[in-house]
Amino acid sequence: MLLREVEYARPGSVAEAIQLLAGHEGARALAGGQTLVNVMKARAASPDVLVDLSRVEELRTISVSGDTLVLGAMATYTQIMGSSEVEVSRPILGEVVAQIADVQVRNRGTIGGNVCSSDPTNHLPPLLVALDASFTIRGTGGERTVAASDFFLGVYLTAVAEGELLLSVSVPASGNAADGFAAVTIGRDGTCIVSAAACLDDDATRVAIGCVDAVPVLVQPERSDPESIRGAVTAAALDPPADVHASADYRRHLAEVCAVRAVQQASERGR
Amino acid sequence: MAEPSTSASISVEINGEVYEREVDARRLLVHFIRDDVELTGTHIGCDTGNCGACTIQLDGQAVKSCMLLAVQADGAKLRTVEDLANDDGLNPLQQAFSSHHALQCGYCTPGMLMSATALLEANPRPSEDEARTAIQGNICRCTGYQNIVEAIVAVNA
Ligand SMILES: Cc1cc2nc3c(=O)[nH]c(=O)nc-3n(C[C@H](O)[C@H](O)[C@H](O)COP(=O)(O)OP(=O)(O)OC[C@H]3O[C@@H](n4cnc5c(N)ncnc54)[C@H](O)[C@@H]3O)c2cc1C
Ligand code: FES
Ligand code: FES
Fold this sequence. Notes:
The complex is a heterodimer. Chain A is of the alpha+beta class. Chain A has 11 helices and 14 strands. In chain A, 33% of the residues lie in helices and 27% in strands. Chain A has a 5-stranded antiparallel sheet with strand order 4-5-10-6-7. A 4-stranded antiparallel sheet of chain A has the order 11-12-13-14, with helices on both faces. A 3-stranded parallel sheet of chain A has the order 1-3-2, with helices on one face. In chain A, helix 10 runs antiparallel to helix 11. Chain B is an alpha+beta fold. In chain B, helix 2 crosses helix 5. Chain B is elongated and about 50 Å long. The complex binds flavin-adenine dinucleotide (FAD) and FE2/S2 (inorganic) cluster (2 copies). Flavin-adenine dinucleotide (FAD) binds at residues 28-36, 53, 73, 100-101, 105, 108-110, 112-114, 116-117, 119, 122-124, 160, 165-166, 191 of chain A.
């Protein structure tokens, strides 16, 4: 397919990337391209300038700092699957990215692109909300850190404003917490019809549900038994979209099912 | 390439040969490979990242070449299906595809071979499950996959 004419630049540092993004109208970051190139083919978006982040090495690192796992925005799914830091600090991340699409997509797709595209069917937004991740964003005005609950603003809309760059995603190390993830997908490892991620920490239960609203819906049941989970999901009064894969009613049902499964997986691990 | 431009001169190694070309920033890598370099073994099935017919290796990793811009491959080493056959003819993977009837129309085959090649390089004796996972991003409308999986598992069995 022929793309609309576009300019391309490949900065070598974060400072250069921000300069390019902030200095050119219609500039957009290009990460793995596994969403953006398709969006450009469909002309659903037509950036004027692509700022290719692939050579900004500092965005690729995965490190542990104290009790926090810090994932550079350009860390690919394949890299996350093979990371010993992830395996030790928060293994659920490696397990979930291994369920995204296929080998080729996992070789290119990045954590930063996954969250910045804020597609309601993507795997990582609900997971990162359940894990209470935080997001470090930098622009010409400086750097700030945003909580997961304030990061996802709508479909394809996040706290990363025009001209800004997502630098990294920080996830607390597991500590006493146990995590789970469950989804009903279109075929094995396909697009999610509904997904749910759960984190059980001491007495708190956090469940984030994907595909039922523009952004993940966080529910915090009092207890972690199936009845309490179902009750909490019902109380959230979900108003999910309907499409060829599921009616709104069926998605509401799946939300309960996935939430219970994700919590069960977490509590089995927590024992 | 720190200043934005609608085209760039790139240097890409494909199957051991270096190509230096001026390309439009909007040119997809698969078109560069097929139309500029005229290596037409790499196919286009869907042009949306779903079918895997355009799979090549980029610096040793299987990727879908319809989901990259040619300019992104600047400085990279690419490998396409044309690189598989050796002087004696088909390589062992291709031979296994032939003897297991792992292709019918053959449209998906270049992509299947490149996904399988990446798998076998990392894991020479894959299980059936591992073979299935490796070709999950490759759609075949003819064979029903069974013979493809058998062929991949048989290469170094
Ligand atoms: C066939 C197929 C199936 C898929 N199935 C799934 C699936 O089941 N689940 C799933 O979660 N995903 C799926 N995806 C999407 C995939 O995970 C993408 O990789 C991901 O959504 C985007 O990541 P990317 O690195 O490719 O980003 P890109 O496509 O390069 O970018 C996406 C958006 O994020 C912006 N962006 C990227 N990085 C930054 C940054 N650091 N700072 C600011 N903005 C940034 C870009 O400007 C762009 O708007 C699928 C993709 C394909 C092709
Ligand atoms: S043509 Fe690239 S995935 Fe189908
Ligand atoms: S052999 Fe025809 S699509 Fe696979």
